[in-house]
Design goal:
- The chain is mainly beta.
- It has four helices and 18 strands.
- A hairpin with a 2-residue loop joins strand 13 and strand 14.
- The protein is globular and about 40 Å long.
- Bound molecules: manganese (II) ion (MN).
- The site of manganese (II) ion has 8 residues, from strand 3.
Length: 236
């Protein structure tokens, strides 16, 4: 086969404790999946259920085995926000997946940040416009190595984010409005879930700004930790 342009590099996640890689296909995201966060964003979790959106796969910034990544401060924002999230890595295809069969489609779990240009998102919401430029920008999805599901049986874990040593976000995964199984069941009604798809499952309350020089440490009990260093904006 010959190409006009060489195919782009395959986005990947490391697999914890292994030399193998997990090839990433698409990045799906859930918005407003924790009631307290929905309320802090001005939404009513009882009236407005979780929403789905996506980021391009090459927005992924995969952590090395040491869990550390550096992300440049993105352009066109004065209010970059952190959102710490449990990430589900899909291993087998499915459509209209039943909730009680959903976890069988999971290869593993990771922790990631759904980095958000909050000022652009607020402007888009006001005008009923799409969220892509607020959510799907370059390097907007730093993510830890993925731990195979069999090695992480504890879905009652806690999710936490510290910035420069200060706790910013903290919740129980049980606080999710839609569980991992519910998210897979619902999303698979809209699209066929494919091996390599990632699902960022939503953030708890406490989202806030990140600035160049900040170091954010994201963790979910039992999963590889993720350390994200915010660098200066990229020059021309
Ligand atoms: Mn999010």
């Amino acid at each position: 086969m010959t190409w006009i342009l060489q195919p782009p590099p395959q986005p990947v996640l490391h697999v914890a404790g292994q030399s193998a890689f997990f090839a990433v296909r698409r990045i799906w995201c859930v918005g407003r999946n924790y009631a307290a966060h929905a309320r802090e964003m001005g939404a009513d979790p009882a009236r407005e259920p979780p929403v789905f959106f996506a980021k391009p796969a090459d927005a992924l910034v995969p952590a090395l085995q040491d869990g550390a990544v550096t992300v440049p401060y993105p352009p066109k924002t004065a209010n970059l926000h952190h959102e710490v999230e449990l990430v589900v890595a899909i291993g087998t295809r499915g459509v209209n997946i039943a909730a009680d069969k959903a976890l069988a489609h999971v290869f593993g779990y990771a922790v990631g940040l759904d980095l958000t240009r909050r000022d652009l998102q607020a402007a888009a919401k006001k005008l009923a416009q799409p969220w892509e430029m607020a959510k799907g920008f370059d390097a907007s999805a730093p993510c830890s190595a993925v731990l195979p599901a069999a090695e992480w049986p504890d879905h009652t874990a806690r999710i936490e984010l510290d910035v420069n040593g200060t706790r910013r976000q903290e919740a129980a995964l049980d606080d999710m409005i839609w569980s991992v199984a519910d998210v897979i069941a619902c999303l698979s009604q809209f699209v066929a879930l494919e091996p390599g798809d990632l699902i960022f499952t939503g953030t708890p309350e406490g989202v806030g700004p990140l600035l160049p020089g900040d170091v954010a440490v994201a963790s979910v009990t039992g999963l590889p930790e993720l350390t994200v260093r915010i660098a200066a904006a990229e020059a021309a």
